[in-house]
Amino acid sequence: MDQVILGKTKIKVNKNGFGALPIQRIEKKDAVYLLQKAFYNGMNYFDTARWYTDSEEKLGAAFSWIREKIIISTKTGAQTADVFWQELETSLTNLKTDYIDIYQFHNPSFCPKPGDESGLYDAMLEAKKQGKIRFIGITNHRQTVARKAIDSGLYDTLQFPFCYLASEEDLQIVNDAKANDMGFIAMKALSGGLITDSQAAYAYLRQFDHVAPIWGIQRENELDEFLSYQENPPMLTDAMEAKIAGDRKELAGNFCRGCGYCMPCPQGIEINNCARMSLLLRRSPSASLLSAEGQAKMKKIEDCIHCDQCKEKCPYGLDTPELLRKNYEDYKTFL
Ligand code: SF4
Ligand code: SF4
């Protein structure tokens, strides 16, 4: 079974981390079953967030009795120290624990530092002093903030999107995190569903011994797929290399990752799916995308008032309204 040491934390986790965002969408009993099955089959690292509605509660229900046997990271999107403390207490209650292994700032637009006016990093230090958290982490989709977090030396871990579609700049961040002894937690290892070959995704990431991917898991067959890689880790084959090269060519450049940070849209447009519809149509089952409901969602693009809120919030610098327009044109042709 592949293992990863998370940098200076010295925490050792299974290479298969469990991303607990998707378990929001399933019933509690089903989530508890999935989480416990993951644990009994060797997974020991679970990542969640205060923003993932009841995900923390489900983790608490599954693991409170074996707390010390697993590693939990969660996240706070707090913008002020007061909210930070409220969220930390809520997370501890939900997770039925008195400590969090890695507490992360959730995609902040800046890199919190001691003494800055937000007071967030000072609150982190105080929480660590009180024993409520063990290590301080940060998650981000922006290269600029990730780079500042690495250079600051203030963070034990960095959670950043990393998959085989990574750019040279992304790779530099991955390598610099290692050079600075930071744990590297890879989110979006399937690029929000655009990578459909999980074996190739796993095999690619396996080349980086310091990278701990967290796979978003909602269904038992998805869990089984990743569990099978523990016994038989996929190796990069020529066929996989060819597939990766093809995907890089097709998906290179400015594609929507489906992260949803540009939302909500005042016109109710489901941007995180509509802005990558052309790719979804060609890379995943299309029946629901083309259903009456799917068509209604795409038609809402006609209501765009070009307020540019989404464009300003997109961490990838995408021209989101233009992307929506192009995807809608293509969708109508596809229909
Ligand atoms: S530009 Fe259009 S899609 Fe973007 S937030 Fe404004 S209304 Fe919504
Ligand atoms: S447009 Fe940007 S922010 Fe919005 S879902 Fe896509 S990648 Fe994320």
From TrEMBL:
Pinpoint the 4Fe-4S ferredoxin-type domain residues. 294-326
Which CDD domains does UniProt cross-reference here?
AKR_unchar (cd19100)
Q: Which residues cross the membrane?
A: none
Q: Name one Pfam family in it.
A: Fer4_17
- Whether Iron-sulfur counts among this entry's keywords is yes
**Gene3D superfamilies found in the cross-reference section:** NADP-dependent oxidoreductase domain (3.20.20.100)
Q: Which domain of life is it from?
A: Bacteria
Q: Which InterPro entries match?
A: 4Fe4S_Fe-S-bd (IPR017896), 4Fe4S_Fe_S_CS (IPR017900), AKR (IPR020471), AKR2_Oxidoreductase (IPR053135), NAD(P)_OxRdtase_dom_sf (IPR036812), NADP_OxRdtase_dom (IPR023210)
Query: What keywords sit in the KW lines?
Result: Iron, Iron-sulfur, Metal-binding
Q: Which PANTHER family match?
A: D-THREO-ALDOSE 1-DEHYDROGENASE, NADP-DEPENDENT OXIDOREDUCTASE DOMAIN-CONTAINING PROTEIN
Entry protein name: Aldo/keto reductase
Please tell me the species this chain comes from. Acetobacterium fimetarium
